[in-house]
Automatic annotation (TrEMBL), chains A, B:
Any Pfam family hit: Pyr_redox_dim
UniProt domain FAD/NAD(P)-binding: residue ranges: 4-280
Gene Ontology MF, one: oxidoreductase activity
Protein's UniProt name: NADH oxidase (H2O2-forming)
Species in which this protein is naturally found: Actinomycetospora succinea
Length: 448, 448
C-alpha cells in the first residue's frame, strides 16, 4: 500500500506540501482538504485586481483542477476537517467521517485578528482572502464611494493603495503613528504617506477602532477620533495563526500562537508536520519566533514539510525575512528588521544610510532609492535593512537578507563591485553608498 | 608645503583618484591633466543620446568646472602629458614644461584597438568617446541612412541598438559566431539577436573586417563576406589599455598590456599609482589578469589609488565582475564568467538553469528572466552566472558577483528566501529556481 499523507489546507503551504510529498515519493497517496472552492489561485493578486492594475480574476488561477488530478494530488474542495486524533492517526472530515493517514501536514494558514469591537456582524465588512468572495466584492466596489481600511498592515497598505487607484475615497485608520509601524521605520514610510495624500487617501494614525456602526449594513466606523461614514470596510487586522485544530489535537503551540516546528517542519507529535502561516519559525539572528510571514515562506515551508512527510530529507532554516511591496507610488522593502524593531528588542546598532538612485542620474525614469543598513556595533555585521524606492527593491531585499544571513559587514558592502549601465544602474550602487556612509560616520566619530 | 599629486587622466579613474586624494588629505595639492575639453561627463550615456532615449548631451555632464575649482582640484584641460621621469618625480606637459609631483597617478584609460586594415584615415569613422566629438557626430547621424558597426563588443552592442532605435539601417560585423562572444554565452545572446532582427538590424557574424572603402569619406566596409555600403562606421573594436606613457617610463606592464598594480593600486615604481582601464587586475577566482573593465571599476580603483597616494590606506581586491547592459529589447548581464569562458580556460563546471519570471505570472508587464549558474563540481560553489531578461538584471548581477566572491553554493542559493509581491517579484526567484534545478539534475545523475 502506498504511504498516505493528509494535508489540511489548500493555500501556498498546503500545495507546496503536496508537491513536496510527490517529489520525495511519487507513489504516495496525497489528499488535500480545503474549505474553499479552489486551490492554486494567488490571493496575493486580489488587491491588484481591485485596484485595476490586473484586469481580471481569472488570471490569478495558477492551475486547473484537472492538473492536480493528473499529478495524483486528490483535492477535496469545500471540505472541513473538524478534528485530529494523532494517536489513531485519523482526521474527522465533514461528510467523509473518519479518515486515516500515515503522515499529516497541518497547513491551516492564517486568520485576520478579531477586531474585538461591536458591529462585527454588519454587512459590508470585507476580509480579503477567498477569491470567489473577492469576485463578488469587486462588483460591490463599483458602487462604493467611501471606504475605511482598518489597520495599516501589509494587506491594509496594499488595499489602501488599490482602493485609491479605483477612485474610491479611502480612509485608513491605525493605532500607531505611521503605517506598518511594527515592521517599517517612520522615515521609510514618509514618502508613502505623501504619495497617498496625492492619491486622496485620508490616513488617521494614532487612532483606535471602537466599532462598526450601521443598521444591517455598515454605515460608519467608530474611532477614538470620531465616526467615519463609509459604504465599505476592509478589515485588514494583523494575521494570526489558525492553529485551533492543532491545539485541540495537542500539538505544541508557541508564544505567538503558531504551531511549534523543528527544522524538518515536524511538530511536537510524531507523524505530524505543519507549515505556513499556522506555524512559527525563529528569526535567524534574534531567534525570536515569528508568525504570519509571506506566501513565499509558506510555499517553501510546505515543500520542506512535504518532502519530509514523504520520507525525504529537507531542512527549513531560520528566516531573515526579505520583504517588499508597492505602497502608494513607491516600493518599500527590507530584510531582517529596521530601527523600530531593533529599538523595541533592545538590539544595539549602527546605521549606514544613503539617498541613492536607480539609474544614471541623467537617464529618463531614474528614481530615488533610499537605503538604510543596520549593523552590529564593533563587528559591523549587517543585522537589518530597509528601503524605499521603485526599481530593484525586491532584488536588493533578497540580497540583503542573504547578506544578513552570511554575516556581510559594512566593509564587505562598501567595497562590493556593481554594474553601472545608464538605463539600469547608477555609477554608485545605493547599498554601497549606504555602507560607505556608515563607515565614514564611524570614522568621523573616532569609532573606527 | 602641501603634498602634491599629479593625475594623468580626467576619466572615471582620474576623477575617482582626485576625490580619493582629497578624502585622505584635504590639504593636498591635486592637479589633473586631460586631453579633453571636459571632465566629469559620463561617456556611458553617449550611445543613449544617439539612440534618443536621453534627450540631450547637456545632462551627461556631472559637475561644472567651477565645482572642481571649489573643492581644490586643479584640472588642466586640453593638456597632454608627454613623458614621465619617475627618478626626478616630474612629468613633461605640453605648454607647461617640466612639472614636479610627490605622488603620481596614471589614469590614461583605454583606446579602441587599431582595426589594422586599410582605409583607417577615411572620414566617417566614428570612435565613440569624447563628448564634444559625440555632439558633432550626433548631427551627422541625422543624415545617415546606413551604418556599419565594427565588432559586437559591449559598446558595439549598445551602438547597434541605438542606431537602430534612431531609425538607421544598421549592420553589425563580428568575427565570432555570436555577439559579445568573449564574455556572454550563445544562448544568452540569442534573444538579443532576435530582437535586433525585429529592429531591422542586419548582423554579419563569422565575418572579418578587411578594410574601409571610399574616396575621402567612407562609402563601404570591406568584409570577408563582401562589401557593405554605408555612410558611417562606428569602430567599436575591443578596448586596449592606453599604457604607452607608463611603459616608456619603465612601469611594469602585464600580459594584457595593462599597467601592473598591487592591491593599493601602486605600480612597480615607488610613488606612482595607476587606476582604471590603463591597468590590469586579477579575476578573483582564476587570478587571470583582466583589462578593460567598466567605468564603475575605474572609479573605485581611482578612489583607492587616490586615498593611498594621499597618504591613507585602502585596498582594491580582485574582481568578480558583475556586468549588465541593455541589448536590443533585453537586458543581459552576469558575474564572473559564463560557459564560453569557463570552457576556454578549461575550468570544469556544473550548470543550474532556469527560465523564470520577473513578477507574478499574472501581473501586467511580467517578463522572462533566464538565469544560468555555473558551480564548481563537488563543492557546488558558484563560479559564474549569466542572465537575459529585463527587470532586476543589474541588481541580480551585483548579488551574484558577491555570491561568487563569498563562495555561496547551489545549496545556499536553492534555499534562499525571496520576496513575493505580484507587481515586483514572482513566487519563485529565478536564481533560486536555477540553483534548485542544478541540484535536481545532479541528483538525477546520481552525483549528489
Ligand atoms: C489578499 C492577500 C494578499 C497577499 N499578498 C501576498 C504577497 O503579496 N506576497 C506573499 O508572499 N504573500 C501574500 N499573501 C499570502 C499570505 O499573507 C500568507 O502568507 C499565505 O496565504 C499563507 O499560506 P498558507 O497556505 O499558510 O495559509 P492560507 O493561505 O491561509 O491557507 C489556509 C488553507 O487552509 C484551509 N483550511 C483552514 N482550516 C481548515 C480546515 N479546518 N479544514 C480544511 N481546510 C482548512 C483553507 O481553506 C485554506 O485553503 C497574501 C494573502 C492574501 C489573503
Ligand atoms: C561610449 C562609452 C560608453 C561607456 N559605457 C559604460 C557603461 O555603460 N558602464 C560602465 O561602467 N562604463 C562605461 N564606459 C566606461 C569605459 O568603458 C571605461 O571603463 C572608462 O571610461 C575607463 O575610465 P578611465 O578613467 O580609466 O579612462 P578613460 O575614460 O579612457 O579616460 C582617460 C583619460 O585620460 C586622458 N589622457 C589619456 N592620455 C593622456 C595624456 N597623455 N595626457 C593627458 N591626458 C591623457 C584622457 O583625456 C581621458 O581624460 C563607457 C565608455 C565609453 C567611451
Amino acid at each position: 500500500m502506498p504511504h498516505k499523507t493528509v494535508i489540511i489546507g489548500g493555500g501556498a503551504a498546503g500545495l507546496g506540501s503536496a508537491g513536496g510529498v510527490k517529489a520525495a515519493d511519487p507513489d504516495a497517496e496525497v489528499v488535500v482538504y480545503t474549505e474553499f472552492e479552489d486551490v492554486a489561485y494567488s490571493p496575493c493578486g486580489i488587491p491588484y485586481v481591485h485596484g485595476q492594475e490586473i484586469p481580471d480574476f481569472e488570471r490569478l488561477f495558477l492551475a486547473t483542477k484537472e492538473q492536480y488530478v493528473q499529478v495524483g494530488i486528490d483535492v477535496h474542495y469545500e471540505t472541513s476537517v473538524t478534528g485530529i486524533d494523532t494517536a489513531a492517526r485519523t482526521v474527522q472530515v465533514t461528510g467523509e467521517g473518519t479518515v486515516g493517514y500515515d503522515t499529516l501536514i497541518v497547513a491551516t494558514g492564517f486568520e485576520y485578528a478579531d477586531p474585538g469591537v461591536p458591529g462585527g456582524d454588519l454587512e459590508g465588512l470585507y476580509y480579503v482572502k477567498n477569491i470567489r468572495a473577492a469576485m463578488e466584492w469587486d462588483k460591490v466596489l463599483d458602487s462604493v464611494k467611501r471606504a475605511v481600511v482598518v489597520h495599516a498592515t501589509p494587506l491594509g497598505v496594499e488595499m489602501t493603495t488599490s482602493l485609491a487607484h479605483r477612485g474610491i475615497e479611502t480612509h485608513l485608520i491605525d493605532p500607531n503613528p505611521w503605517p506598518l509601524a511594527d515592521m517599517a521605520d517612520a522615515d521609510i514610510m514618509a514618502p508613502v504617506e505623501e504619495s497617498w495624500r496625492e492619491l486622496g487617501v485620508v490616513a488617521h494614525f494614532n487612532t483606535t477602532l471602537k466599532g462598526f456602526v450601521g443598521q444591517g449594513h455598515v454605515s460608519a466606523v467608530a474611532t477614538s477620533d470620531g465616526e467615519l461614514p463609509c459604504d465599505l470596510v476592509v478589515v485588514a487586522t494583523h494575521k494570526t495563526p489558525n492553529a485551533r485544530l492543532a491545539a485541540a489535537a495537542g500539538l505544541k503551540i508557541g508564544s505567538t500562537g503558531g504551531i511549534v516546528v523543528d527544522e524538518r517542519m515536524a511538530t511536537s507529535v510524531p507523524g505530524v508536520f505543519a507549515a505556513g502561516d499556522a506555524v512559527e519559525v525563529p528569526h535567524g539572528l534574534t531567534r525570536v519566533p515569528l508568525q504570519g510571514l509571506t506566501g513565499s515562506h509558506a510555499y517553501a515551508q510546505g515543500k520542506t514539510a512535504g518532502v519530509n512527510a514523504g520520507g525525504g530529507t529537507r531542512a527549513y532554516k531560520a528566516v531573515y525575512v526579505p520583504w517588499g511591496t508597492p505602497a502608494g507610488k513607491w516600493v518599500i522593502g527590507g530584510a531582517s528588521f529596521g530601527e523600530t524593531t531593533a529599538t523595541a528588542l533592545g538590539i544595539p546598532y549602527v546605521l549606514g544610510q544613503a539617498q541613492g538612485i536607480s539609474r544614471a542620474r541623467y537617464y529618463p525614469g531614474v528614481k530615488p532609492v533610499k537605503v538604510k543598513l543596520l549593523a552590529e556595533p564593533g563587528s559591523l555585521r549587517l543585522i537589518g535593512a530597509q528601503m524605499v524606492g521603485q526599481e530593484g527593491i525586491k532584488e536588493r531585499a533578497d540580497f540583503l537578507a542573504m547578506a544578513v544571513k552570511h554575516g556581510f559587514t559594512f566593509h564587505d558592502l562598501s567595497t562590493m563591485e556593481n554594474v553601472y549601465s545608464p538605463a539600469i544602474g547608477a555609477l554608485n550602487e545605493p547599498i554601497v553608498v549606504a555602507a560607505t556612509n556608515g563607515l565614514d560616520e564611524l570614522r568621523k566619530a573616532g569609532k573606527l
